[in-house]
Structures are given as structure tokens and as C-alpha cells.
Amino acid sequence: MERAIDTQIEDLKKMILLMGGHVEKSLAQATLALLSRDQSLFEEVHVIEKLINEDHIKVDNACMNVLAKQGPVAKDLRLILSVIKINNDLERMGDQAVNISYSGKDYLGRKPIQSQLNDIQKMSEIAGRMVKGSLDCFVRGDVEQAKKILLMDDEIDGLKNKVFKDSVAHMKAHSDDVDAGLDLILIARNLERLGDHATNIAEDVIFAFTGKDIRHGGKFG
Amino acid sequence: MERAIDTQIEDLKKMILLMGGHVEKSLAQATLALLSRDQSLFEEVHVIEKLINEDHIKVDNACMNVLAKQGPVAKDLRLILSVIKINNDLERMGDQAVNISYSGKDYLGRKPIQSQLNDIQKMSEIAGRMVKGSLDCFVRGDVEQAKKILLMDDEIDGLKNKVFKDSVAHMKAHSDDVDAGLDLILIARNLERLGDHATNIAEDVIFAFTGKDIRHGGKFG
């Protein structure tokens, strides 16, 4: 027999997927704006941010309702606490996409330096896959797949280090490009943070479905 | 008559204060290491980070226990959900102090540029006051004071913009100092993020004690 809480948890999952879709779109638009040099796409990032912020408040309220009305325990409780955390991570991902659009707008106003854009595009693609992948794991309760998300974060970190190194070298050689190089460094940093948030989500999935806390170096057998 | 949940909430507050003390100390040590050029103090930041991570897991577990055993509603529930969020913000503040120590170690290995250190010291002092202040508000349920924390964030943002501007100007004029300038920019960014987390805590306090959600531009009358 289906319990009322099962329906409510399904609703929470749907809300999280919808919110995740907004985050993915926001990241994709910010990256496309940067690569296609189309300022107007940055405006869409701000429009989507409003949706993400609305989602954020809605999900929090829905979680509070379920907690107050059902007084869940054990796995149900873990799952709802995970939704609260995932909600926070998604909202901060939205903030990172907005940060990218701010630095991106600055960047497009300057003399273009192209050399790091390839790596930034790769970082954005991986981050997008991490967002989608971590939420898929959450909805399906797929702990094995969640572990794979954790590995993707290493790829992003490696690319971030490369963008940092290459940008610094370029800035040293071309003092006119210090501003543009810094914009790209900050964008790479935002993408790295996006990956970190997806990693947090994967860790929350593992906790929700196994009860094992692998944050801060906790072992996952 | 005192309810069991009142004692448990008092215990949660004590845990949060202890964790906040670790975060304050971590930030203070990272800043002192940078200003006094004492690498060994950065190691203390890593030691404190371990404590913060332990606090993080302890607080989460304690919150889950209260939720599971007491099934709290209304103000009690809001307060416990705030603890879960504050716990997350404090843990991320600890990460920012660690990030400062990484960039700080790099910075100390280079030819010193002093010009931005004054502003960075000011930022760190404000961030420290924001951490302490936001947690004091939380423990005392002081909503008026929490609103003042929100204003302090503007001060930090202004100083961050100044460090960015001055560092970029210096990097353009001295290509040898591009690495060191970038270190200071990243440290200023970490301090700004620390302030953002304290702002989140102040918003959570307002929500916990008034039920009003002022995140994302919600009005607070």
C-alpha cells in the first residue's frame, strides 16, 4: 500500500528535477553567451536565476510541510534532509552561473583572448553532465552512478588548474590582457565550484540511500 | 515546564557556537599567517579544518536525531532546519579559510607586494565580526542584530572590489607580480564568500525566529 509520504517524496523529487533543469539551462546559456559572444544570452541567465530562486523557496517550504505533517524517520527522513541540502546546492549553482555571466559580460567588453575558451567549454560540459547525472542518481537512488560523479570532479579540477596556469602565462606576456585573463580565471573558478556542488549532491545521494556519510573522507566500501 | 526538545535545541546551539569558534579561529590564523608571513600558522588552519569537519557531521547527526525522535513542528522545526543550514554555511566557511591558506602559502613563496594587505586585513576583521555576530544573533534569537549583519556584507563587497581593482592595476604595471596579485585577488574573493555565508546565517536567523523568508529579495518589514 502506498503511504502518503511516498507521494510527497515523489513530488519533492519532481520539484528538484525541475529546478535542476533550470540550473542546467542557466549554465548552458552562460557558456553559450561567452563562446558565441552574444551578450543578450546573459540576460536569460538572470531570468532563469529568478526561477531558480523561486524553486529554492518552494522546495524548502515543501520539505518543511512534509517534516511537520509526517514526522518521518529513518530513510524517509534522510531523503528529505538530502532534498534540503540538494536544494541549497542547486541554488548556489544558479549563483555560480550568474557569476559567470557577470565575468562573461566584462570579458566580452574587452579585446578577446581565445586561448582558454576551449578548456572553459570542456569544463562547462562536464559541469552540466555532473548536474544532470547527480540528480538522475538522486531520483533513481543509484548509488553506483553517484560514485562516478565524484570522479568527474577531478576532471574539472584538472582543467581549472590548466586555465589558471595558461591565463597567468598569457597575462605575464601581455599586460593589456590582464583584465580578460582574470575574467577567464574567475569563470574557471565558478565552473569548478559548480562541480563541487554536484559532488555534494552525489555525496548526499549516497547518504540518503545507504545511510553512509562519505563527506570529509568517510569511507565508502 | 521545560520540554525535552528545549534541552535538545540548547545543545544544538552550543554545538553551533563551538563550531563557529573553530571557524573564527581558522579565519584569524589564516589571516595572521598571511600578514606575519608565518607559514607554520597555515598548518593550524588545516588542523582546525578537521575539527570543523567533525563538528559538521556531529551537528547533522544531532539534528537528524531530534527530528526523528521529537517530530518538531512550527518554530521548533524552523529552528532545527536553520541549524542544518547554518551548519552547512559554517563548514563552507572553514573551506574558505583553507582556500585562503592555499593561496596564502603560494603568496608567501613569491616576491611580496604589500599594497593590498591592509584591505585584506580589514576584510578579514569584518568577516570575523560577521561570523561571531551572526551566531550571537542565532543563539539569542536577536532579529534586529541579524539585520545589521546584512549591512556589513556591503562593506566587505566594497573592499573586495577595491582589492580587485588595485591588484589588476599593479599586475598590469608589474608583470613579475601577476602571480602574487592573483593570489591576493583569490584571497579577497574567499573573504567575500565568507561574508556571504555569514549573511546566509543572518537570513536563517530571521527566518527561524520570525518565519519570514527574506532570501532572494523577500521583504522584511
Provide the descriptors you would attach to this structure in a database record.
221 residues; homodimer; elongated; mainly alpha
Description of the molecule:
The structure is a homodimer of 221-residue chains. Chain A is mainly alpha-helical and 221 residues long. Chain A contains six helices and no strands. In chain A, α1 (4-36) packs antiparallel against α2 and α2 (39-70) packs antiparallel against α3. The two termini of chain A are 33 Å apart. The relative contact order of chain A is 0.14. Chains A and B meet through α2, α3, α5 and α6 of A and α2, α3, α5 and α6 of B.
Number of strands of chain A: 0
Assess the beta-strand content of chain A as a share of residues.
under 5%
**Main beta-sheet annotation of chain A:** none
The helix-strand sequence of chain A is HHHHHH
Shape of chain A: elongated
Multimer state: homodimer
Overall pLDDT score of chain A? 95
The most extensive interface between chains reads:
A-B, 35 and 35 residues
Count of runs of 4 or more consecutive helical residues of chain A: 6
Distance between the termini of chain A: 33 Å
Question: Over the alpha carbons, how many angstroms does the gyration radius of chain A reach?
Answer: 19 Å
Which residues of chain A sit in consecutive blocks of at least 5 with pLDDT less than 50? none
- Helical content class of chain A: over 70%
Class computed from helices, strands and strand pairing of chain A: mainly alpha
List the helices and strands and how they pair.
The structure is a homodimer of 221-residue chains.
Chain A: H1 4-36, H2 39-70, H3 74-108, H4 117-140, H5 143-173, H6 178-210
Helix pairs in contact in A: 1-2, 1-3, 1-4, 2-3, 3-6, 4-5, 4-6, 5-6
